[in-house]
Design brief:
The structure is a homodimer of 137-residue chains. Chain A is an alpha+beta fold and 137 residues long. Helix content of chain A is 35%, strand content 18%. In chain A, strands 4-3-5 form a 3-stranded mixed sheet. In chain A, strands 1-2 form a two-stranded antiparallel sheet. The longest helix of chain A has 13 residues. At the A-B interface, helix 4, strand 5 and helix 5 of A face helix 4, strand 5 and helix 5 of B. The structure holds a DNA duplex (30 and 30 nucleotides).
Chain lengths: 137, 137
DNA sequence: ATAAAAACGATAATCATTACTATTTTTATC
DNA sequence: GATAAAAATAGTAATGATTATCGTTTTTAT
């Protein structure tokens, strides 16, 4: 149960993956649902959640927790990488800055147990929102 | 509405704060509720949530999102600091390692918008769980 | 004392997510 | 190709954390 060959073929899952692979905005399960519905009018939200959860458990896609009561976001790229959430428009994007220090490794050096990973989410204002702000007042 | 003087006195809130201030384990709202109930048998979970939310909004306590469907945890210390979640026993604790690089500042240098903060949660196994693991097999 | 504002307790509502179940699809085998 | 077990689906109910509502009680300024 560690790779995709353990799953039976499913048109719905293929459509979910196809939709997700074209997106850079890390959509929610509901957004995936509404879009895949165009091709599969009878698909259910539960099916979308089941497939997204399976795919992220298998390491085929990524799942991003947004904190609070915000819905999770899904990412065609399963590799650990950094994300940025804009306080202005709420957009979520990959954070394309150069390499940053590996906090988990640094923290592990001074920790009594063992630290194997960490998850970081960045907050601020995206380029667009900064532009709008300076345009006002 | 930016400090505690904007709130009216409340015995329930005092009890919630008193309970929380003695704890280093970052309890959930439900844990706070069950404990404060000893002194206020008629307190409701909604009151606990309302007070905890107010207090964290005012910067008097901290609120920690755990990801997934896990309930939030509350921290008597409102200052931004790092937390560690043990994959073994599920305990949440402050991460007392020396100072770590300021990722938000580093990332901001190479970002088109503005990054003002980031939240990091560390994962691994606590000292106790490591000891149990090596004791097995 | 008193009246407006805020907090309370009880409970209902919300929202994301998961679980359940009968039916349909996939896939390995004949 | 027939077929039967396993997995997936659609529809829907359930769960769990959190927030909202509302009539009552407490706080606080006058």
């Amino acid at each position: 149960m560690t790779d995709i060959s353990t799953l039976k073929k499913s048109k719905q899952r293929d459509a979910i993956l196809a939709f997700l692979s074209n997106r850079k905005d890390h959509p929610t399960a509901d957004t995936v649902y509404m879009n895949v519905k165009n091709d599969f009018p009878s698909i259910s939200l539960g099916t979308v959640y089941r497939n997204l959860t399976q795919l992220s458990d298998l390491g085929i896609i990524g799942r991003i927790n947004m904190g609070g009561t915000l819905p999770d976001r899904f990412d065609p790229n399963p590799e650990p990488h950094l994300h940025f959430l804009c306080r202005g428009c709420g957009c979520l994007s990959d954070l394309d800055v150069g390499p940053l220090p590996d906090l988990a490794a640094l923290a592990d050096e001074h920790f009594d147990g063992r630290i194997d990973s960490c998850v970081t989410l960045f907050y601020g204002y995206c380029e667009k929102c900064l532009a709008m702000e300076s345009g006002l007042s």
